[in-house]
Amino acid sequence: MMKGLIGKKIGMTSIFDPSGKQTACTIIEAGPCVITQVKTSESDGYNALQLSFGDKKEKNATKAEKNHFAKANTAPKSFVKEFRDFSTDKPLGEAITVDIFAEGEKIDVVGTSKGKGFQGVVKRHGFSGVGEQSHGQHDRQRAPGSIGGSSYPSRVFKGMRMAGRMGGDRVKMKGLKIVKIFPEKNYILVSGSVPGHIGSYVLIQK
Q1: Taking the mean position of all CA atoms in its chain, how far away is CA 68?
Q2: CATH code assigned to 4-117+170-205
Q3: Where are the domains positioned within the chain?
Q4: DSSP 42-99
Q5: What is the pTM of this model?
Q6: Residues 65-124: pLDDT tens digits?
Q7: What is the C-alpha to C-alpha distance for residues 27 and 189, in angstroms, rounded to an integer?
């Protein structure tokens, strides 16, 4: 069942287990998320809960948003996401917290990777470059090399790995382990790194 929460990336740290092994961890503020809509198979064709997270200034919310969140008796939120396979008998306005997770559990984390702008092939695709300067060549160490034949096919094939915009993609990190939970702060520590910059929203899926 794909239960989950919306969270915010706080930063990274590392912890040591009793044997002295160091593990790099990401700190995520997971919820509390408010239920702002309940969808059922009778009315919508499928079962899902709409969860909302992160306060939004009243002046920045539209009239439609204010009315939508008022039905759940909550302030406007900045991030809204549907999660399927939750029990739909939960009432509007109920908060879902990190209590749905347990230490040692494996989760998936979805986020938007950092935007890197326009990058060359060495950084974007891991090309090795063409080596040292020799025989009169210079400023070619990070060049892509030949990208297509001249006589045949006289064109560059679609999908050729070339320089271009990098980052800003939806990335899912699978099988991350929950190392520790701090329920009083709604923090969870997950092993490894998760995509996105500090302060970005992520989806935590069971």
Answers
A1: 25
A2: 2.40.30.10
A3: 4-117+170-205, 118-166
A4: TTTSS-EEEEEEEE--GGGS-HHHHHHHHHTT---EEEEEEEESS-TTSPTT-EE-GG
A5: 0.82
A6: 999 998 888 899 999 999 887 777 788 888 889 988 999 999 999 999 999 999 999 999
A7: 5
